[in-house]
Specification:
The complex is a heterodimer of chains A (303) and B (307).
Chain A lengths: L2 H8 L1 H17 L4 H11 L4 H17 L5 H13 L8 H4 L6 E6 L6 H14 L4 E6 L6 H12 L3 E2 L7 H14 L4 E6 L7 H17 L5 E8 L5 H12 L4 E5 L9 H9 L3 E5 L7 E3 L2 H9 L3
Parallel strand pairs in A: 1-4, 1-5, 2-3, 2-4, 5-6, 6-7
Antiparallel strand pairs in A: 7-8
Chain B lengths: L2 H14 L7 H17 L4 H15 L10 H16 L15 E6 L6 H14 L4 E5 L7 H12 L3 E2 L12 H11 L3 E5 L8 H14 L3 E7 L5 H12 L4 E5 L8 H10 L3 E5 L7 E3 L2 H9 L4 H7 L1
Parallel strand pairs in B: 1-4, 1-5, 2-3, 2-4, 5-6, 6-7
Antiparallel strand pairs in B: 7-8
The structure holds guanosine-5'-triphosphate (2 copies) and magnesium ion (2 copies).
């Protein structure tokens, strides 16, 4: 299956809800057109404010382009939604120059951090980088075992200590090992933490400090993993995490499980942090690099 | 838990204090504010409607009660309406008349099934029941190790699939034998997370249900899920059958809409809530306690006695 088909399939639930309604309102063009369009966007969790702005923008554009066809209008809508996303330099460019590049996965409980760590490791290894994984979730039962099994499956080394060990010390070991072995990428999994738990949030800070001390020249990506099925609640998670960690990118998981994929747009807009990857399933290759225009196109258009 | 809803409601009640008795206009304004607060908390539209209608029926035309301010009267009625939409009474897990009582944990990926399975095992162990945990998630990496570790932590045996087991249904004969040998009274089966659109996995769960005939199929729902949870629950109920709901991660800061909606929409009770990662952080669900937590205003019981 090609890349484009894979995205479309992963977003099927959102597409089913959004694309068909979009097509039908554009074809019908009732007097209630703008209102309906706004409601479709809101129901896909794009968020009330953004939905309103986007529809107003379309209205204004149509006024200055009275002869526009339905298709041209839709194309305009598409491009203004796409423009919401912050352009981000592709990872392949930013990664291997100064090694190791360190990727830290953070987020609340059960969103898919460990799975994303495994999937990312596979992606980067397949792109020709050497990769090491660090099991800094020493808290959750068998979290270390879970990451080690990913390591076994992919044949990628996993740095780990005993359950209950200091997570910052595992991060330290991981970066050390990566430097010592000249590895391109160190991917560090951390324990789930709810955004209102101060002590856990402090622990994250400590991990960040250790990485900077051990690898001052390394590019560090802090990826916040968000479960797309929780809709607007993801916004408050994002707000809290940016307060305590230098979140540099977002990963939206479980998009295969929601019809409200529009939340990706609301999230991208909130703090202008680029969306890096989307998760569309549990298998190794179900993590896709995020491309705004492909994403918008996939949820708006039926074909 | 539900900080923003609680804050909103407190604001509404505060505005009422000092404004004397309840006039029709004041009731109207207050109902509108409550409606908006519930909608912002992501409560489903139908539930908001029945909530405000119920409240309106109680408040409109109600005579001023002696010794109560208008604010106190509103708080008391909001509380009672909230207890009502949360299910009125506590619902527990009734043990089967003929042991074992088999309990299924089911739900979406990452909702908290495995953790809640262990929490429930601890709960029953505390009642001196003989409990067996069954590691029936063969899909997620290290799901079995996770349950094994949790079982060790609480001293509850875990039935582990023999190496090479590929289908969860293959475990059933082993469970049957083990239950007889160990005279277990409660058997808690952890299942793999699944999306409702995944027809193969839903079919597998249906098959497991047929095999085990569980007394309780518990749907484990992440409280952070919001409205989508309600749709998910409906599908699980239609395809598999849901006997009760467990909400997890209520120790986080969520808007709470799903918790307030599910009882009315699904017509199935909430049985427990998860309040933390530790295994003793499971609480039985009492609609009245939950309602007073959400409302968050002082001593509701005293108000109610006067009302
Ligand atoms: N359908 C679907 N499931 C996913 C996706 N990503 C992860 N999952 C599943 O979500 C569940 C939780 O994933 P984990 O990787 O364990 O999540 P985590 O954030 O590490 O969880 P904790 O460490 O317990 O906080 C697992 O069952 C994964 O298989 C996705 O994109 N789609
Ligand atoms: N804070 C908090 N975390 C919880 C609660 N219940 C579960 N968790 C955490 O949520 C994450 C996912 O829990 P699991 O029990 O692994 O979820 P699951 O449904 O079995 O996940 P899969 O098997 O991957 O589908 C873990 O990090 C748990 O520690 C709760 O009530 N509060
Ligand atoms: Mg994890
Ligand atoms: Mg599990």
């Amino acid at each position: 299956m090609g890349f484009f088909d894979k995205i479309r399939e992963g977003l099927q639930k959102t597409r089913d809800k959004v694309a068909r309604s979009i097509e039908s309102v554009f074809n019908r063009r009732d007097p209630g057109f703008y209102q309906e369009l706004e409601e479709i966007l809101i129901s896909a969790d794009v968020g009330p404010v953004v939905s309103k702005e986007i529809v107003e923008e379309l209205k204004a554009w149509e006024k200055t382009n009275p002869g526009a066809t339905a298709d041209e209008s839709l194309a305009h809508l598409e491009s203004s939604l796409t423009a919401i996303f912050t352009p981000a330099s592709p990872w392949e460019e930013s990664s291997p120059s100064k090694s190791p590049m360190v990727v830290l996965l953070v987020g609340v409980n059960g969103v898919g951090k460990t799975t994303t760590a495994g999937k990312l490791a596979a992606r980067f290894r397949d792109a020709g980088n050497s990769v090491i994984l660090g099991a800094a979730d020493t808290f959750r039962a068998a979290a270390i075992e879970q990451l080690r099994k990913w390591g076994e499956r992919l044949d990628i080394p996993v740095v780990h200590q005993k359950p209950g060990a200091d997570p910052a010390s595992v991060a330290f070991d991981t970066v050390r090992a990566a430097r010592a072995r000249g590895i391109d990428m160190a991917i560090i999994d951390t324990a789930g933490r709810l955004q209102n738990k101060q002590n856990l949030m402090n622990e994250l800070r400590k991990i960040g400090a250790i990485i900077h001390r051990e690898a001052p020249d390394s590019p560090v990506e802090v990826l916040l993993v968000l479960d797309a099925t929780i809709g607007q609640n993801a916004l408050s998670q994002l707000d809290e995490f940016v307060k305590i960690a230098p979140v540099s990118g977002l990963v939206l998981t479980k998009l295969d499980g929601t019809s409200r994929g529009g939340v990706v747009i609301a999230l991208a807009r909130r703090h202008k942090i680029p969306v890096r990857f989307i998760g569309v399933g549990e298998k190794t290759d179900d993590l896709l690099p995020f491309d705004p225009s492909t994403f918008v196109r996939s949820i708006l258009r039926t074909s | 838990m539900f900080e923003s809803l609680t804050g909103r409601l407190e604001g509404i009640f505060k505005k009422l204090t000092g404004r004397g008795g309840l006039t029709e206009q004041l009731v109207g304004e207050t109902l509108e504010e409550i409606r908006v607060a519930l909608l912002e908390a992501d409560v489903s539209l139908d539930v908001v409607k029945s909530f405000t209608e119920g409240l309106s029926a109680r408040l409109v035309g109600q005579a001023q009660k002696s010794g109560l301010t208008g604010a106190q009267q509103v708080i008391a009625e909001v509380y009672q309406e909230m207890v009502h939409i949360l299910g009125d009474h506590r619902a527990t897990i009734a043990l089967a008349s003929k042991p074992p009582t088999i309990i299924f944990m089911m739900g979406l990926q990452g909702s908290g099934k495995t953790t809640t399975a262990a929490k429930l095992a601890l709960h029953f162990k505390g009642q001196n029941r003989r409990v067996l945990l069954v590691a029936s998630d063969l899909a997620r990496l290290a799901a079995i190790d996770q349950l094994k570790v949790l079982g060790e932590q609480i001293g509850v045996p875990v039935l582990l699939p023999p190496d090479g087991t590929t289908r969860p249904s293959d475990l059933y004969p082993l469970v049957k034998r083990r239950v007889i040998e160990g005279m277990y009274e409660v058997v808690i089966v952890d299942t793999a997370g699944r999306l409702t659109v995944d027809s193969a996995l839903m079919g597998e769960l249906k098959e497991l249900r047929r095999l085990y005939s569980p007394k309780e199929c518990l749907l484990v729902v992440d409280a952070m899920q919001g409205q989508e949870a309600v749709g998910v629950a409906k599908t699980f109920d239609a395809e598999i059958g849901v006997d009760g709901v467990v909400f997890t991660k209520l120790d986080g800061d969520t808007r709470g809409g799903a918790v307030l909606s599910i009882r009315q929409v699904l017509k199935k009770p909430i049985k427990f809530v998860g309040m933390g990662e530790k295994l003793d952080r499971l609480e039985a669900f009492f609609p009245d306690r939950m309602a007073s937590r959400i409302i968050g205003m002082g001593d509701i019981q005293t108000l109610l006695e006067k009302a």
